[in-house]
Amino acid sequence: MTVPGNPNSERVLILAPHGRDATIASGLLHEAGLRPLICEDVTALHRGLEEIAGMALVTEESVRSADLSAISRWIAAQPAWSDMPFVVLTSHGGGIERNPALTRLAEVFGNATFLERPFHPTTLVSMVQAALRGRRRQYEARGRLEDLRLGEARLKVMLAAEKVAAEHQRLLIDELNHRVKNTLATVQSIAMQTLRNADNTAQANEALEQRLLALSRAHDVLTRENWDGADLHDVVTQAIAPFRDRDGHRFRVEGPDVRLNPRMSLAIAMALQELATNAVKYGALSNPVGFVTITWSSERKHGLDAHLSFLWQEQDGPPVVAPQRRGFGSRLIERSLARDLDGTVEIAFEQTGVVCRIEAPLA
C-alpha cells in the first residue's frame, strides 16, 4: 500500500470535479509545499489509493451519490497500522450534525473530517497538514510493527537454534560418557590381559605401553575428525608409523578411500599394533629384508551395504611356525576385533609369513 521513504506516500488526492474547486485547492496545497494530485472521478481516486497516497480531499457533491463500494472494500482491507484520512468539503450550512446524508460518508471513509464551506484557505491547509502528520505517525507505527515482527522472527530463530544446541550438547555429553566408559573398559582389558600373559614385569610394561600408545594414536586420528569417524588411510598410517624404517620400504600400503566409524577405527588400529609388534619380534620386520603388504577394498556384496575386505600379509621374514597356543595379541585381534567390526577375522600362520584377513560391513 505504501513504500517507506517514497515521497508519493504523502500525496494528497483531490476529488472535486465541479467548477474550479480542484484547481483552487491544488494551488493552495502546492503553495504550502504539499504534493496534490487531482482525480477526475471516483475510479481515479480509487486507483490513487491503491497506488500510494497520504490522504484524500473530496467534495461532498462528488461522492454523495457515487458508487463507493470499491473504495469501501479498499478501506476495509487496510492493514492494522493504516487508517487513511479523508477530508470532506461540505456545502454551506451542511455540517454532519445538520446533514444526515453525510453519515453515510462518515461510515464509508471511517477516518473522515468534514470542513464546511466557505472556509479560509489557511484552515484548509492546516487541516490537510494535520491529516498528513497523522498519516506519518501511521507509517512510523508500521515501521515499529515491522521491527517487532522481525525481532520476533529473529528471536524464534535464536530460540530454535538454542534448543538444537542444547539437544546437541546433551547428545555430546551422553556420547562422551559412553566413549569414556568404552575407553576405560578397553584399557582395563588390555592391562589385565597383558599382565596375565607377560613372562615378567619388564615385558608387561613394554607391551602395555605400546598398546596404550596405539590406542592414543587412534584417538588422535578421531579427535582431528571430531569423532565423526576416520579415513582408513589415516588409521593405517598412524598405526604403523612407529614401525616404519627411514625409507618407508617395510610397508606397502594400498587401498581406496574408506570412511570408518569410531569403533571400527579403534579396533583396526589396535589390531595393526598387535600385528606390527608380533612382526617386529618374530615375523617379517625382525630381519632387514622382510616387509608387510597392507591392502583393502570396498564393494557391495549381494546387494547389501558396502563391505570392507582388509589384508595384512608378511613376506620375506623368517620361516613361520604356528604357535601351540594363541597369545593375547592374537585373541585380541580374532575375538575383540571381530566383535567390534561385526565381521570375521582370521589369522593364518603361513610359512611365508603371517596373514590376517578381515571382512566387515561398513554400514
Automatic annotation (TrEMBL):
It comes from the Bacteria. Gene3D superfamilies: 3.40.50.2300, Histidine kinase-like ATPase, C-terminal domain. Its EC number is 2.7.13.3. Residues 175-257 form the Signal transduction histidine kinase HWE region domain. One of its GO terms (molecular function) is ATP binding. It is an enzyme of class 2 (transferase). It catalyses: ATP + protein L-histidine = ADP + protein N-phospho-L-histidine. Keywords: ATP-binding, Coiled coil, Kinase, Nucleotide-binding, Phosphoprotein, Transferase. Residues 191-225 form a coiled coil. This is histidine kinase. It comes from Methylobacterium gnaphalii. The lineage of its organism: Bacteria, Pseudomonadati, Pseudomonadota, Alphaproteobacteria, Hyphomicrobiales.
